[in-house]
Amino acid sequence: MLVSCDTTPGLVFTPLAIPGAHYAGNQACADCHKDIVRNFPASPHARVHLGNSTIAGLAGCESGHGPGSKYIESGGGGTFIINPRKDPTACLQIVGSEEVGPDLSSITPVISATTVGNQAVIKWNWGGYGDFLDSCEIMVDRGDGKGYTLLTIDTTPGYTDTQPFPAVRTVWTYRAIYRVNDGQVGVWSAPVSIPVAV
């Protein structure tokens, strides 16, 4: 798995360390590496550059290469700098793991249903776990003796049921369950009912 230091949410970064070296700052790097500095704004790593960072090593050149003082003192000797091309795991020394996901055995969607004009609108959301869930399966019981039938597998919170309302007042009942990798996860939501008629 490829992890990009500039796009992975929920990780904690610690400054890189080189024994005996201290952080020299971006300008010290820029003095010798003019071509790299000129092209830096167009690189993916520019997103990591935090100009207002108050913690040395968490922004700019030294966030990916470690403290540069010994490298500068040696006149650019390669043994005193970290090269992420040779050791990509060194990039910002990622500590910890991505944010913890939900317990997929017990997660439950919370849904509500209302009528808007002559349509039923089923409101649902990811419950804060959209990064870990793929879709929401919604079923409906139209009060016609058939029980619950599949209405949709929705990937965008909020769903409009376009089935025309019946002429006779009926109660439609909805329930939902989350899905991951084409399978149901967690527990069915509490059913919600709405009376419908033309």
What would you say this structure looks like, in words?
The protein has helices spanning 26-32, 34-39, 61-65, 69-73, and strands at residues 12-13, 94-95, 112-116, 119-123, 135-141, 148-154, 159-161, 170-180, 183-185, 192-196. With 198 residues, it is α+β, with helices and mostly antiparallel strands. The protein folds into 2 domains: 12-95, no CATH class; 112-196, Immunoglobulins (Immunoglobulin-like, Sandwich). The strands form 3 sheets. Strands 5, 6, 8, 9 and 10 form a 5-stranded antiparallel β-sheet that branches. Strands 3-4-7 form a 3-stranded antiparallel β-sheet, with no helix packed on it. A hairpin with a 2-residue loop joins strand 8 (170-180) and strand 9 (183-185). The longest helix is centred in the N-terminal third of the chain and has 7 residues, at 26-32. The protein is rod-shaped and about 85 Å long. The chain starts with 11 loop residues before the first strand and ends with a strand.
